[in-house]
Amino acid sequence: MLLATSAGHAGNPSAAAGQTPATEANAKTQAGAKAQAQSQEAPKPQSEEAAEQPATPAQAGAKAQTQAQKGTTEGLPKAQNIDLQEPIQGAELVAPDGTTADAAPAVEATPDDLVGAQPFVLLGREVPPATSTRLAWAPSQSFEGIYAATPVLVVHGKKPGPVLCLTAAIHGDELNGIETVRRVLYNLDPNKLAGTVVGVPIVNLQGFHRHSRYLSDRRDLNRFFPGDPDGSSASRIAHSFFHEVISHCDALVDLHTGSYYRTNLPQLRADLTNPGVVALTKGFGATVVLHSEGAEGTLRRAAVNQGIPAVTLEAGASMLLDETSVEHSSKAIQTLLNHMEMVSKFRLWGDPEPVYYTSTWQRAPMGGVIFSEVALGESVSKGDLLGTITNPITNVRTEIHSAYDGRVLGMALNQFVQPGFAAYHIGIRAPEEKVPAPAAAADSNASGQVSPAAEPLPDTEVPSDEQPDAPDSGDDAFEDG
Ligand SMILES: [Zn+2]
């Protein structure tokens, strides 16, 4: 077992305390059906009903798409031009109809200056060239009538160029990406940008509010893309986000962290069998790249399947904000903007080549308290001591030694682990062109006390839509964290 290509898991039972999933699902089904019916009507011109009520972003988006297909954005409300760095005082951030409550007057760009530049249409708003704005995406109306809207930041450059999308907190407990998106977006000058950067700092607002990786129905949103408008709640949310936002992207960076008290060295997860994805990985400066197709249902994989080059940028651990990870991620994305020729003046990162890896996991052979002897990112040789596990009851101590020459790309934080816990993620360096092929070197059973390579791949079935209570496979670490 080499490549990180296995599957996920469904629920964290503790994540749904107090929820009544069946009732909620029913309510959402009804609300969703209603929203769908409405959105089917949406393509017709502004109806009286639409004039009376603020359009939901889904309705407005459908209109925008229809209008865009007609080659006109006539009639779309213009997004306000906002200085994203300017803090919002007091007022509600995002109104349910997708507008920002901030009442800053729109600053019209000089027409002469912008000949040839096109407005960017997203979520039912027209963003003029050389402006920044906050929009809102809401998957559908919940039974209360209003779904909490997720802020979507847009910086639309003065010059034409690609649309780069940055998404974070699809897992609601992963915080580093939120701050990374803020730093990148708030430091962009639309007057100096070629193309468009769309940043969604918190995709899974439901999980974020509960400090949970999951949606409120205990499903992992990152297993449901590209979604289904008639499917489960998670599937509908995924479908809405994919079609309202992601389908407008030319490239995607989805930000994640390690899961379950594991931390990751900043790294890209990328399907290196895809040339467009490989090209994208070369833009992140000195960021290591781990080959992985991505589990079925991940946003990254769904985007790649739709022809949008996408990578996951993993950095740090869940529930922690660490400056090292945020700094690296921000720098990596700024380097990417430079590489994509969207900005010209960002500090360059010396433009070092990425380093490609295959990888394997070293597991805990027994349960107990794990303490590490290595640091994240450290190079290790076969036989090196990675850490120890001590049973607090029997006082039996076991050592975990590296089975390979490699580098620690991810590792457990010190904690109590169960036998079989994936504790150390060892990257094995390989030339880019060889990474996707199974590397024989790492498949042999190693001499370490654990033998991750000998284990079969964890259950690769994506948890069924119908089984929100499916037990956690425990092998999430194989996946995008
Ligand atoms: Zn994640």
TrEMBL record:
Its cofactor is Zn(2+). Residues 462-481 have a biased composition (Acidic residues). Keywords: Hydrolase, Metal-binding, Zinc. Residues 25-45, 52-73 have a biased composition (Low complexity). InterPro entries: AstE_AspA_cat, N-alpha-Ac-DABA_deacetylase. Residues 1-81, 435-481 are annotated as: Disordered. The keyword Glycoprotein does not apply. The keyword Zinc applies. CDD domains: M14_ASTE_ASPA-like (cd06251). Residues 160-339 form the Succinylglutamate desuccinylase/Aspartoacylase catalytic domain. This is Succinylglutamate desuccinylase/Aspartoacylase catalytic domain-containing protein. The lineage of its organism: Bacteria, Pseudomonadati, Pseudomonadota, Gammaproteobacteria, Cellvibrionales.
